[in-house]
Specification:
The chain is mostly helical. Helix content is 76%, strand content 0%. The protein contains 5 helices and no strands.
């Protein structure tokens, strides 16, 4: 789901989407799983904590990107978009790890 969220942020800064994706990390589609079934099933696991922290960082960075876009600060905007793509990959990596861990456990 955060692949689509990051793509939406990219569309926003290129004028293809308005408004930007949901900036509140507790109101995006992924958060429904994260704070619902994900927390219930995996909440005690270290990987869950990592995923939750990265998810929060993604949304924090989204707010920074929107501010740079609003202020037409192109250099910082592109730097932070690069950081957002990297965070997305780290988030996906940890989600895949959690899935593998869960499969091994059951």
């Amino acid at each position: 789901e955060h692949r689509a969220w990051v793509d939406g942020m990219n569309d926003y800064i290129h004028g293809k989407q308005d408004p930007p994706p949901v900036l509140d990390g507790h109101k995006c589609k992924f958060s429904r799983w994260l704070y619902g079934d994900g927390q219930q099933v995996h909440g005690a696991e270290a990987l869950y904590g990592k995923i939750e922290a990265i998810h929060s960082q993604v949304h924090d960075l989204g707010r920074v990107i929107v501010a740079h876009y609003t202020n037409n600060n192109q250099q910082e905007l592109h730097k932070e978009m690069d950081n957002l793509y990297q965070l997305r990959e780290v988030l996906i990596y940890h989600l895949e790890e959690l899935l593998l861990f869960s499969k091994r456990r059951h």
